[in-house]
Design a protein that fits this description.
The protein is mainly beta and about 100 residues long. It has one domain: Jelly Rolls, CATH 2.60.120. The chain is built from no helices and eight strands.
Length: about 100
């Protein structure tokens, strides 16, 4: 597992690229910084565009899932099986961490 820290340049929509293993267990965990009450200031994760080693999309984008809630106040895992890189669109006013697993 690798952890990176993302410091947003502003509170608007931004993107960060992460590199993954390409395995069936590839995933990212978005970790907003939790406060003393166990919750974070809200942030949003929108489209996640992920690609495999053949430069083809792997077909997973959480915003295309019915009932998807883009607002995060705690940690959330996104499964990206077969992905070797992904662009994660987010909106956050404070730094947060991304764990790259798999």
């Amino acid at each position: 597992m690798e952890r990176i820290t993302v410091t947003p340049p502003n509170a608007a929509e931004n993107a960060v690229r992460v590199f993954l293993s390409g395995s069936t267990g590839a995933a990212v965990i978005i970790r907003p910084r939790l406060g003393g009450d166990g919750f974070a200031k809200p942030m949003w994760v929108g489209d996640i565009f992920a690609w495999g080693s053949d430069h083809q999309g792997i077909g997973h984008n959480p915003t295309q899932t019915g009932g998807y809630n883009s607002k995060l106040t705690s940690h959330r895992r996104y499964e990206l099986p077969g992905a070797v890189w992904a662009d994660i669109n987010y909106s956050a006013a404070e730094p947060f961490d991304i764990d790259i697993v798999g």
